[in-house]
């Protein structure tokens, strides 16, 4: 099968797409893939490193306020559809899958107009403008949260989950924490502010470190490159206590997540897919800087299920962070109940479900 995948701008659109590609490569090795992104998006850096064929089109998003830039955006959209059709005629895909971002708007729309089977995949509980637009033309819409169904045509929409979940669930217990100077048999809290880090989380961790150093559990904090030096200058982690580990970034995040007891971080769609697939309890701090406040809505469904505790970015302090961690880590029964609820919310066969959707529409 020839499969064209498109999506970009942020990791939340890219990593689920790559996870799905890797799944299909395992079960159907003779499949051929083409990934279409933009030269300015994160996908231009990430996808070529995987060895997957990659092409770009030029596109930009609409400004939410009236702007002359929107005239240019319309022109680029028209041009990008022409370019998309050229790519589609050349590659001749059996199916086109869009995972979000402006680039997928042009490619999936062009494919639908050319009568090529199309699928839109939505990672968040509240969809972005591109996927809402595309849902009118696509053959199927795969969603990751049940709440997202209300925004799409009922007869096209299927709950499939996020393909990243299926990758993560294959990670098992290991000695990976030793790579970060921690012991594998001590309860561990992972704090992660995203690849770029998060200012409010970083400020809270700085306030909390002295108290964390006195706990029986250990803490692994991935600060992001932006904030690593700031913390390293303020604290000599090795001298504070052996139960703290500060890292700028964690490359083998899925392996680490499979070996910790509690996750603290943002409420992005990929993170939620991963933690629920593993059955991890979590403290989520939704980013206030995302479109439609979708991270709060992502987290709320897990709060309602009893799987996570949510602290708003505005309310987050070091003291509140320590209190929240102690409340969970100090109560094994509560932690176990949260873990069970988290696992029940997970969709560990998400890539398989999306693949079934492909086979439904490809004749």
From TrEMBL:
Binding site for UDP-N-acetyl-alpha-D-glucosamine: 10-12, 124, 195, 250, 295
GO molecular function: undecaprenyldiphospho-muramoylpentapeptide beta-N-acetylglucosaminyltransferase activity
Known function: Cell wall formation. Catalyzes the transfer of a GlcNAc subunit on undecaprenyl-pyrophosphoryl-MurNAc-pentapeptide (lipid intermediate I) to form undecaprenyl-pyrophosphoryl-MurNAc-(pentapeptide)GlcNAc (lipid intermediate II).
Highest taxon of the lineage: Bacteria
Native organism: Enterococcus avium ATCC 14025
Pathway(s) per entry: Cell wall biogenesis; peptidoglycan biosynthesis
Main localization category: membrane
Gene Ontology cellular component terms for the protein in this record: plasma membrane
UniProt-annotated location(s): Cell membrane
Every Glycosyltransferase family 28 N-terminal domain range: 3-142
Occurrences of domain Glycosyl transferase family 28 C-terminal (ranges): 188-354
Catalytic reaction list: Mur2Ac(oyl-L-Ala-gamma-D-Glu-L-Lys-D-Ala-D-Ala)-di-trans,octa-cis-undecaprenyl diphosphate + UDP-N-acetyl-alpha-D-glucosamine = beta-D-GlcNAc-(1->4)-Mur2Ac(oyl-L-Ala-gamma-D-Glu-L-Lys-D-Ala-D-Ala)-di-trans,octa-cis-undecaprenyl diphosphate + UDP + H(+)
Protein name: UDP-N-acetylglucosamine--N-acetylmuramyl-(pentapeptide) pyrophosphoryl-undecaprenol N-acetylglucosamine transferase
Gene Ontology annotations of biological process type: carbohydrate metabolic process; cell division; cell wall organization; peptidoglycan biosynthetic process; regulation of cell shape
Keywords: Cell cycle, Cell division, Cell membrane, Cell shape, Cell wall biogenesis/degradation, Glycosyltransferase, Membrane, Peptidoglycan synthesis, Transferase
Coiled-coil intervals: none
Family statement: Belongs to the glycosyltransferase 28 family. MurG subfamily.
Enzyme type, top EC level: transferase
EC number(s) from the headed UniProt entry: 2.4.1.227
NCBIfam families: murG
Annotated membrane topology: Peripheral membrane protein
Keyword Electron transport among UniProt keywords: no
Pfam families documented for this protein: Glyco_tran_28_C, Glyco_transf_28
């Amino acid at each position: 099968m020839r499969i064209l995948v498109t999506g970009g701008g942020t990791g939340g659109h890219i990593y689920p797409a790559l996870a799905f590609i890797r799944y299909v490569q395992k079960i159907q090795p003779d499949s051929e893939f083409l990934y279409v992104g933009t030269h300015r998006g994160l996908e231009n850096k990430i996808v070529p490193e995987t060895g997957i064929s990659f092409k770009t089109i030029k596109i930009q998003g609409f400004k939410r306020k009236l702007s002359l830039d929107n005239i240019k955006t319309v022109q680029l959209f028209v041009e990008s559809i022409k370019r998309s059709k050229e790519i589609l005629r050349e590659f001749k895909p059996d199916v086109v899958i869009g995972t979000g971002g402006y680039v997928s708007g042009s490619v999936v729309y062009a494919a639908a107009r050319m009568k090529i089977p199309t699928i839109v995949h939505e990672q968040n509980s509240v969809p972005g403008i591109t996927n809402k637009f595309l849902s009118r033309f696509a053959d199927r819409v795969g969603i990751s949260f049940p709440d997202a169904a209300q925004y799409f045509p009922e007869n096209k929409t299927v709950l499939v989950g996020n393909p990243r979940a299926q990758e993560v669930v294959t990670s098992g217990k290991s000695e990976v924490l030793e790579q970060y100077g921690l012991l594998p048999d001590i309860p561990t809290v992972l704090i992660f502010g995203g690849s770029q880090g998060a200012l409010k989380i970083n400020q809270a961790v700085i306030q909390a470190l002295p108290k964390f150093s006195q706990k029986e559990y250990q803490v692994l904090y991935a600060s992001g490159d932006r904030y690593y030096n700031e913390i390293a200058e303020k604290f000599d982690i090795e001298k504070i206590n052996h139960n703290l580990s500060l890292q700028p970034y964690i490359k083998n995040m899925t392996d680490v997540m499979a070996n910790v007891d509690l996750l603290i971080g943002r409420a992005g769609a990929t993170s939620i897919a991963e933690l629920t697939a593993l059955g991890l309890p979590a403290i989520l701090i939704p980013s206030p800087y995302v479109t439609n406040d979708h991270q709060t809505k992502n987290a709320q469904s897990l709060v309602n299920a009893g799987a996570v505790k949510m602290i708003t970015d505005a309310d987050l302090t070091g003291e509140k962070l320590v209190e929240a961690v102690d409340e969970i880590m100090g109560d094994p029964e509560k932690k176990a109940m949260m873990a069970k609820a988290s696992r029940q919310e997970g969709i560990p066969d998400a890539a398989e479900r999306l693949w079934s959707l492909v086979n439904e529409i490809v004749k």
